[in-house]
Amino acid sequence: MQLKDINFIGYGDIASNNIFSAVKQNQNERSQNELESLDKNIDSLTNTSIKVNFNESTFKNQVYFKDETSGEFIKIGLSDENLAKLQRVFGKQDFFTKSDGSQILSGNAESFVAGWFGDIAYKRGYASSDANGDGYLSQDELANTNSGFTAHGMYYIGLKVAAVDSTETYMKYSSDFQDKHKTMSFAGKYASDSIEKELNKTIQNDKNSDGSLTYGELMDKSESEQDVTDVINYMLKYGLTEPVELGEDLLAKALLQQFMGGVSSLNAEQKAILAKAGLLMDKNMQDLSSVIKNIEANIENSKIDFKV
Which of 146, 118, 144 is nearest to 131 (CA)? Predict the structure, then answer.
């Protein structure tokens, strides 16, 4: 099945759904004296039980922030783009530069970065999944994280219409999940192989820096359509549902023609059949959801729930 073979509706309805949220943090407004004191001994306070990167960091801007869960400081690398973004959004007053060029975060910037770290390390389970504590998450280790998310909905087989209507998040990133979401998993949409990489990706994806990642921030429309197509193909390939042939079902054929060519492409008989079933679209109608909701009652066994 090719992507162009499916008609998609509903993305706009789920794009604003929340997928991941930063862990709420206490805000530490540190004085200059406190920051200067930290400058002298912060490395002795830095968390050593959670390794945030492997080998050498690929991000040159090293920053410190306090992790509320462990009560210790974390040292982690940020990209040039993310550091500039944080300074632009929260102000340079939240950044104290040490003599070696690394920076201690405080105030809103620290709360924001620490909040996303908490989500990744604890809620998504990166810290506990790094079984050997080397800072690198293998595919087997990533499979234990809760970094999966998905769109749910119905696929109307005869009509080749996929209608998404909800989302699910913090799903186990299992091998089965990865098989169903093959394209986007391969593209790195769901998980990174270190906390440091995932933190940088998360900060970048949080377009408005509000501590919340929506489905639309994580998946654009074309990516979502590809992801849904992969799930549907997986279900059909492995016999989780049986395709329904249109056969001589005149109503199903009329519906398919209406979806593919619009009302103007229908003949008089098809219009009459659809009108009688309450499925005839207004020629100016752009949103297909009002028609979709009646299909289940009119075409039996014509749909699959692509919830995974």
Answer: 144
